[in-house]
């Protein structure tokens, strides 16, 4: 049985609240960190870990709250993790993405919390939906799309702001943080240029995805996302929605239905069978890639998209 998103969010929030008292017993709660020579950073999930490690270098110790292979949307915190948040010198998170983290930060974060959602306005969940001329898009209702890291230019800006926050935590190394952020920005700008060029001339521009995680990527590179489900990867699509997606996939002669790494491919496989398409992985990079890092995963995504869309 599928648990509704609101129920999952309530359960996660309740769990976080119940752990606060236990966490206080094993945490000093002063944000002093455990290593006096490094800034103790807690990252809420993988892309933020990637940023903190690349910009912080050997001047930081980074803890990711999500275990490898786990789906970050529905993270529930144990007392040790809440203690980590309480002790961290800097907490890097994205408000609205993980309710349990939001609650723990509200209770324990204070001025040590850096919300990356506040760096640039997030896209509405309704943006980026598939749309025919003269029709309303097949859109999500309400909320914001958190998957901001799938636009490299936005991630670069978040990195610049993170360098500033690290510089306030460790002023003696502020120039190092700024230099590393600038180097990372250069890499992300090269990645952006490769995407722009690589997806410039394609026979198709529609990407049919198992869930609507790719709105930022689609908007940046003039693609058209058709999400089988919405922002929550575990939502079960209604039969009517499956029929709508199959119809659109046929209309646009889609040859590939994309699924992602951390959830079941069954929904994508169902649509693929219906329209005679193949399936392929398009990684939303919510967790660490099996090999490499964010940059290599994004380049793998680019090659997958070029093949699926018949780009010259």
Our Rg estimate from Cα atoms comes to 20 Å
For the biggest sheet, the summary is: 4 strands, parallel
List the strand order in the largest sheet.
2-1-3-4
Number of domains: 2
Number of helices: 10
CATH class of the largest domain: Alpha Beta
Provide the succession of SSEs: HEHEHEHEHHEHEHEHEH
For CATH, the homologous superfamily of the largest domain is named as Nitrogenase molybdenum iron protein domain
The geometry reads as: globular
- Secondary structural class: alpha/beta
**pLDDT < 50 runs, ≥5 residues:** 1-28, 130-141
CATH fold title of the largest domain: Rossmann fold
Number of strands: 8
Mean pLDDT: 86
Strand content: 5-15%
Oligomer: single chain
**Percent range of helical residues:** 40-55%
Query: What distance lies between the first and last C-alpha atoms, to the nearest angstrom?
Result: 44 Å
CATH architecture of the largest domain: 3-Layer(aba) Sandwich
Task: Report what the structure shows.
The chain is an alpha/beta fold and 312 residues long. The chain folds into 2 domains: 5-120 and 144-191, Nitrogenase molybdenum iron protein domain (Rossmann fold, 3-Layer(aba) Sandwich), CATH 3.40.50.1980; 201-308, Nitrogenase molybdenum iron protein domain (Rossmann fold, 3-Layer(aba) Sandwich). Helix content is 44%, strand content 12%. The protein contains 10 helices and 8 strands. The protein has helices at 5-25, 46-56, 79-87, 99-108, 152-169, 174-198, 215-220, 239-251, 266-275, 294-308, and strands at 39-43, 60-64, 90-93, 113-115, 206-211, 224-229, 256-259, 278-281. The strands form 2 sheets. Strands 2-1-3-4 form a 4-stranded parallel sheet, sandwiched between helices. A 4-stranded parallel sheet has the order 6-5-7-8, with helices on both faces. The longest helix has 25 residues, at 174-198. The chain is globular and about 60 Å long. Residues 1-28 and 130-141 have low confidence and may be disordered.
């Amino acid at each position: 049985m599928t648990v509704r998103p609101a129920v999952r969010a309530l359960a996660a929030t309740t769990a976080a609240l119940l752990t606060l008292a236990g966490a206080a017993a094993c945490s000093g709660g002063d944000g002093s960190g455990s290593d006096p020579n490094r800034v103790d950073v807690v990252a809420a999930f993988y892309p933020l870990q990637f940023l903190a490690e690349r910009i912080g270098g050997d001047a930081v110790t980074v803890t990711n709250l999500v275990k490898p292979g786990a789906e970050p949307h529905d993270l529930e915190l144990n007392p040790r993790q809440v203690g980590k948040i309480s002790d961290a010198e800097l907490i890097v998170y994205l408000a609205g993405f993980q309710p349990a983290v939001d609650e723990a930060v509200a209770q324990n974060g204070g001025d040590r919390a850096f919300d990356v959602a506040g760096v640039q306005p997030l896209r509405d969940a309704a943006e980026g939906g598939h749309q025919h001329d003269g029709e309303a898009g097949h859109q999500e209702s309400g909320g914001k799309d958190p998957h901001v890291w799938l636009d490299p230019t936005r991630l670069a800006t978040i990195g610049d702001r993170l360098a500033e926050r690290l510089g306030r935590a460790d002023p003696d190394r502020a120039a190092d943080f700024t230099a590393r952020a600038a180097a990372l920005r250069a890499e992300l700008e090269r990645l952006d240029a490769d995407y722009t060029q690589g997806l410039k001339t394609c026979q198709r521009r529609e990407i049919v995805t198992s869930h609507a995680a790719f709105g930022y990527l689609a908007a940046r590179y003039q693609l058209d996302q058709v999400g089988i489900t919405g922002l929550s990867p575990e939502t079960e699509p209604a039969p009517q929605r499956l029929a709508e997606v199959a119809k659109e996939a046929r209309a646009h002669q889609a040859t590939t239905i994309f699924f992602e790494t951390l959830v079941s491919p069954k929904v994508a496989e169902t649509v693929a069978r219906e329209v005679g398409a193949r399936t392929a992985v398009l990684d939303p990079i919510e967790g660490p890639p099996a090999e490499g890092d964010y940059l290599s995963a994004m380049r793998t995504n680019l090659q997958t998209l070029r093949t699926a869309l018949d780009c010259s």
